[in-house]
Design a protein that fits this description.
Radius of gyration: 16 Å
Strand content: under 5%
Distance between the termini: 46 Å
């Protein structure tokens, strides 16, 4: 049976929010760590924290964590369709609709093994996001 990771996240949003808040503090507290490659032990820590959270509080309410979320413009590189794929990074984009860039990046890496900052494709350069607010200001 295949699990839809986004639906699982939405059902357990409170647990994910708590774990992601903690992981944000642990993984992204310094600029050098913010842009560093993820490590296998990062994945292990997220899984352990999420299991602990689900076992101890299976119905955690959505938290009031302020993740500093800013909506991305729908025409951004990571959302726009191209000739090869329907979406370049559909999994990342759906997480990005819920969380800020660094946490969406972490969730997409956990799901796919693909780090958007260190892509394995030919176009391995990370492109900055175009935020909706910035796009609206420029129009």
């Amino acid at each position: 049976m295949e699990v839809d990771s986004l639906q699982f996240l939405l059902r357990h949003r409170g647990n994910f929010d708590d774990v992601l808040h903690l992981m944000g503090v642990l993984l992204f507290s310094s600029p050098s760590r913010f842009f560093a490659r993820f490590r296998p032990e990062d994945k292990e820590l997220v899984v352990q924290l999420l299991l602990f959270s689900l076992l101890n509080n299976p119905c955690a309410p959505s938290s009031a964590c302020d993740f500093g979320f800013q909506r991305v413009w729908i025409g951004d590189y990571y959302y726009v369709s191209d000739f090869v794929n329907v979406f370049r990074y559909p999994g990342y984009a759906r997480y990005r609709d819920l969380y800020p860039q660094h946490l969406a990046r972490l969730l997409w890496w956990l799901e796919s093994g693909e780090d958007i900052f260190y892509r394995t494709s030919r176009s391995a350069v990370f492109l900055p996001e175009c935020l909706l607010e910035e796009f609206e200001d420029s129009v």
